[in-house]
């Protein structure tokens, strides 16, 4: 069932359930008829209300006829029936097959959204992107090449950089390594 199903389609799908549900007794059917007749006389006129409240006809038959009538009346009539059912019998309303399917679909969609989001968050280490990583990696490789393969003058100019790098937010062990390499470079 799509989210865009109209009330007419929902009523068509729910009609069998409503006619077979024991909670749809004479009193509830009468309250629904009165709600539709008093609040929305353009949907259910006095003549039709009297016909659907006729106690000489079994309740299930009256309910089936009323549902068929409302279905023929259109989308607004079906919508107002659901509104009246929600007001007078919430337990029946929330047990309708279309409501249950809609809840299951919403739960399934929510679970899928959460799963996709958690998978994405699990694999994303930062939001900078691959170019940021490549540029940082290239910079570090360039400094390492300059340090290890450079001669005399080049080593002296990288020593200051290594001292600055040691002051950056690196662990204590990384700082010690940078400082020791810088001091070795100065001794050469």
Automatic annotation (TrEMBL):
Lineage: superkingdom: Eukaryota
Keyword Transmembrane: yes
Ranges that cross the membrane: 131-149
Keywords: Membrane, Transmembrane, Transmembrane helix
GO cellular component terms, semicolon-separated: mitochondrion
InterPro entries: CARD19 (IPR043574), DEATH-like_dom_sf (IPR011029)
Listed name of the protein: Caspase recruitment domain-containing protein 19-like
Organism: Acanthochromis polyacanthus
